[in-house]
Amino acid sequence: MTTRTQPLPPSAGPTGPPATTRGSWVGMLVWSAASLVASFVLATEAVTLAGDQDAAFTCDINAVVSCGTVGSSWQASVFGFPNAFLGLVSEPVVITLAVAGLAGVRFPRWLMLAAQVGYTLGLALAYWLLHQAVFHIGAVCPWCLLVTVATTFVFVEMTRINVLMGNLPLPRAARPLLEKVVRHRLDLLAAVVWLYGIFLLLVVRYGDALFT
Q1: Is the per-residue pLDDT at 2 higher than 50?
Q2: pLDDT confidence bin for 211, thresholds 50/70/90
Q3: Please, are residues 139 and 66 in contact by the beta-carbon 8 Å criterion?
Q4: How many CA atoms lie within 13 A of 77 on its CB side?
């Protein structure tokens, strides 16, 4: 007789979420708040650039590290409006989910699955924009990099919660393996290594121009 891995209990009780997911809810809250701040700054800069294309910002450090250069590109408004506005809309939703999760709310499976799909699309957009900045625009924006880092960690924590809660439609054979990965925080380790690799990519591509 096979033993099926069970998700976390359906209710965390009145004192808060299960201990296995509490840290992930906190991580979602912190990183989504950081992304919201960065999105607000980028949105403000976008409005400024709309009125003055020659505007200078404190993050215009050199030819490579330049918010103005990135913000003036067509990639900064993929959908016809500044990309930062997407963050202003989406991050408050994530913050609300995180706060409610910390309070012990158990969300319906469909809602957490929808959040996972939506944030996965957001993650894909963030990395597409990073690719465009590095390989086509030729400049990077510190606030954009913060959004990319924050989005990565929110995605990792949200995925961990959904795996442990049994919210994702995973193959039966893959579920125990993924649960073991997220319980031992190998997912977080992989994210840190991945981001460190991106930092090395920037250093290799731009060299001293990144810092001077």
Answers
A1: no
A2: confident
A3: yes
A4: 13
- Tell me if residue 64 falls in helix, strand or coil: coil
Would you say 98 and 16 are in contact if contact means Cβ atoms under 8 Å apart? Answer: no
Token pair, residue 75, equals 């990639």
pTM, entire model: 0.89
Which of 83, 45, 210 lies closest to 139 in space, CA to CA? 210
The rounded distance, in Å, linking the Cα atoms of 156 and 153 is: 5
Residue 11 three-state SS: coil
Q: Give me the domains of the chain, ranges plus CATH numbers.
A: 19-210 (1.20.1440.130)
Beta bridge partners of 140: 65
C-alpha to C-alpha distance for 178 and 181, rounded to whole angstroms: 5
Do 24 and 155 meet the contact criterion of CB atoms below 8 Å apart? no
Copy the structure tokens of residue 111.
Answer: 């809602």
9 touches 18 (CB < 8 A): yes
Distance CA 74, CA 59 (A): 19
From residue 205, alpha-carbon distances to 4, 125, 202, 210 in Å are: 48, 22, 5, 9
Backbone angles phi, psi at 163, to 5 degrees: -65, -45
